From TrEMBL:
Gene3D superfamilies membership: YVTN repeat-like/Quinoprotein amine dehydrogenase
InterPro entries named in the record: BING4_C_dom, WD40/YVTN_repeat-like_dom_sf, WD40_repeat_CS, WD40_repeat_dom_sf, WD40_rpt, WDR46/Utp7
Stored SMART domains: BING4CT, WD40
Organism of this sequence: Mytilus edulis
Source organism phylogeny: Eukaryota, Metazoa, Spiralia, Lophotrochozoa, Mollusca
Protein name: UTP7
Location relative to the cell: Nucleus, Nucleolus
Length: 561
């Protein structure tokens, strides 16, 4: 027998490109000793064109399957999964059949998988929030904006600027949901909309009236301005689209993006909601508490919070004519109210020179601060950084003038009597944004698609409630009443029409003739009742048609007769 050589030299191929298949592999494979012995002893001879084909060790090893050092999915902590879970797990014990039980179990598995994937995707969030790192003997309150601008990069430094507008102040300001566009409204009639990052002016005008408040609507294409008498809606070119005479003498505006509602409070103590998608007023309540010059919204449940001169704060919904909650927050009048983005905490300031933090889950006070003077305006950022304006001073509180934080940016916008200032506040903005919710870099096509999707996902105003968890629950009392009424209807008899025909001569009052006359009169009366109901329904339809046609935007340009 011939000896098998220990090493076999690799034959050179005439084809130069074929050598790449025989190059040694750089990856490390987990191979047992048995497999190596098998390949070393696996030299076989196969006569082909008079030559012996020999298999290379390295080429054979490449055909082995690579072993994963970390098999399975990456582990995820239970705390992160709880963060993305929506409610408790659903039990399938109440299912009628095994098929329905399997359907419930499959749905539950899908929900658990979605929560795990959302928790695992946090690893992809590479952006971190900013911060100020002061020295041991230095306080952050003494760090000026010029020092911050020198320390940050060029892109962040460009976000600090000032607009000197002394003739038309003080200014009210508002940012869009994606933080890209800025709307300014001066008390003496100056209104301007700009892309504050590129400093591009969208429109600028003077309405020649007092401006009380300004608000962007669902997108940067339209905004509302509360003027001296009525509220107007303009587009981003400054063209007047609507005059809302139903919202008169307005002092404050708030827009609810998920419900497409424009809420307003006026100096007569009247609170109203207008649906922007259909152009109709859906609700209005008279609070009976005097002038309503302090208002904010709770972003969590879309309720409206009002501050009053008696030191109370009330929360309102368009479905109820009475306040949902009435809290005594201060001994004197309330100067400002704001709620954080998650709807957990509320901050109030009063004329008694105190600022209080309230827990809206228990409606109890958490902290109370004694400040030098009453704070005129308050604002929470996405990271719960609180801005407090006191005269010509703006203080920033962590962990806890009209100012508003810019979404997804470490920027605080301050509107004052001399114009507008954009201040850099490190750590105030959310570094990672959800592009499906609000995208700062969206294109025109994405903006149009987002508008259609928002209209399709519009939440009815009847669902505005303090506890959002009760929306999906079944109202047992009303369901029981409906079931009882339906059961009663099954045993009800039709309404009887009493009619006794008069006596007639010549055999016309016999039994058969009498019943025929009686039946004919009863059927005729039923026919008349049905006809009246149909006429009323037709009149209501005609009224609805005329009301819709009369509310056309271009009707105000018609000639008056």
């Amino acid at each position: 027998m011939e000896k098998i050589p220990e090493k076999v030299n690799k034959e050179k191929s005439k084809n130069k490109n074929a050598s790449r298949y025989f190059q040694p592999h750089e990856e490390v494979y987990n191979i047992n000793d048995k497999t190596l012995k098998k390949f070393k002893s696996a030299y076989w001879r196969k006569k082909q064109d008079g030559k012996t084909r020999k298999k290379n060790d390295e080429w054979a090893v490449k055909r082995l399957r690579k072993v994963d050092k970390f098999p399975g999915d990456a582990p995820v902590s239970k705390e992160k999964i709880k963060k993305y879970k929506r409610g408790s797990d659903m039990e399938a014990t109440h299912a009628r059949t095994n098929f329905h039980q399997s359907v419930f179990e499959q749905k539950e598995k899908k929900l658990q998988l979605a929560a795990k994937q959302a928790a695992r995707s946090e690893l992809l969030l590479q952006e971190n929030s900013g911060f100020i790192e002061a020295e041991s003997d230095e306080e952050t309150t003494y760090i000026s904006q010029h020092d911050i601008v020198k320390a940050v990069d060029i892109n962040s430094a460009s976000k600090y600027f000032e607009l000197t507008l002394k003739d038309f102040g003080p200014y009210k300001i508002h940012y869009t949901r994606n933080g890209r566009f800025l709307l300014m409204g001066g008390a003496k009639g100056h209104v301007a909309a700009i892309d504050w990052q590129t400093k591009k002016l969208l429109c600028e005008m003077n309405v020649m009236e007092t401006v009380q408040d300004v608000k962007w609507l669902h997108q940067e294409t339209m905004f509302a301005v509360a003027q001296k008498q009525w509220t107007y809606i303009y587009d981003n070119q400054g063209i007047e689209l609507h005059c809302l005479k139903a919202l008169d003498c307005v002092l404050n505006l708030e827009f609810l993006p998920y419900h497409f509602l424009l809420a307003s409070s006026n100096r007569k103590g009247y609170l109203s909601w207008l649906d922007v998608s259909i152009g109709q007023k859906v609700a209005g309540h008279s609070t009976g508490m005097g002038r309503l010059d302090i208002m904010c919204q709770n972003p969590y449940n879309a309720t409206i919070c009002l501050g009053h001169s008696g030191g109370t704060v009330t929360m309102w919904s368009p479905n109820v004519k009475e306040p949902l909650i009435k809290m005594l927050c201060h001994g004197g009048g309330v100067r400002s109210v704001t709620v954080d983005k998650k709807g957990r905490y509320m901050c109030t300031s009063g004329i008694d020179r105190t600022m209080k933090i309230w827990d809206l889950r228990t409606y109890k006070m958490l902290q109370s601060y004694k400040i030098g003077m009453g704070a005129s305006h308050l604002a929470f950022s996405q990271k719960n950084t609180l801005a407090v304006s006191k005269g010509n001073i703006v203080e920033i509180y962590k962990d806890c003038c009209q100012e508003t934080f810019c979404p997804f940016e470490d920027v605080l916008g301050v509107g004052h009597s001399n114009g507008f200032s954009s201040l850099i506040i490190p750590g105030s903005g959310e570094p990672n944004f959800d592009a499906m919710e609000s995208n700062p870099y969206q294109t025109k096509k994405q903006r149009r698609q987002a508008e259609v999707k928002m209209l399709l996902d519009k939440v009815p105003y009847e669902m505005i409630h303090l506890d959002t968890g009760k929306i999906g629950q079944v109202d047992q009392k009303t369901m029981e009443d409906k079931i009882e009424e339906s059961n009663k209807i099954l045993f009800l008899k039709p309404k009887k029409i009493e009619y006794e025909p008069s006596y007639k001569m010549k055999g016309r009052s016999k039994g058969l003739k009498k019943e025929q006359r009686k039946k004919g009169v009863i059927e005729e009366r039923k026919r008349d009742d049905i006809k009246e109901i149909m006429d009323l329904k037709q009149k209501e339809k005609e009224k609805n048609k005329t009301s819709v046609s009369s509310n056309n935007v271009l009707d105000r340009f018609k000639k008056k007769e």
